Amino acid sequence: MTMQAPATKRCCRCKRVKPLGEYHTRRAAIDGVQTYCKPCAREVARLQRRKRSDLILSAARVGEALAQFTAEAQRLTESLRAMHRSAERVHGELVAAGKRAEETCV
Ligand SMILES: [Zn+2]
Question: Where are the beta strands (DSSP E) in the chain?
């Protein structure tokens, strides 16, 4: 028994009835063609490509921001280390000055 495939099909997207030749083939489908007509399939693919490139652009921007943040954090860390070294030096000088003061008082 063979099923006679309909010569036309209604596109799920644009809802227009079109001949099967207006659809890309899809072996897994009962009628052997896609649910979207060729122009709709092209449009969907175009939108998906655009969405994908938007996502890639967003990811690149996030990566850029992260790199700037990391660089800024490194600068701040270095600045804190320098301040710490400076504080240690001042502390050392104060301790030495205190010792000298004690020695002169004796
Ligand atoms: Zn369509």
Answer: 8-10, 17-19, 23-25, 33-37
| Ligand 1 centroid distance, CA of 27 (Å) | 19
Question: If you measure from the C-alpha of residue 40 to the centroid of ligand 1, how many angstroms do you get, rounded to a whole number?
Answer: 4
Query: How far is the C-alpha of 2 from the C-alpha of 37, rounded, in Å?
Result: 25
Residue 1 lies in a domain: no
Q: What is the distance in A from the centroid of ligand 1 to the CA of 97?
A: 88
Show the tokens assigned to 70: 């990391």
Over residues 29-79, the pLDDT tens digits come to 999 999 999 999 999 999 999 999 999 999 999 999 999 999 999 999 999
**Residue 2 is assigned to a structural domain of this protein:** no
Please state the domain count of the chain: 1
Task: Calculate how far, in angstroms, residue 43's C-alpha sits from the geometric centre of ligand 1.
Answer: 9
- pTM for the model stands at 0.56
Within a domain: 54? yes
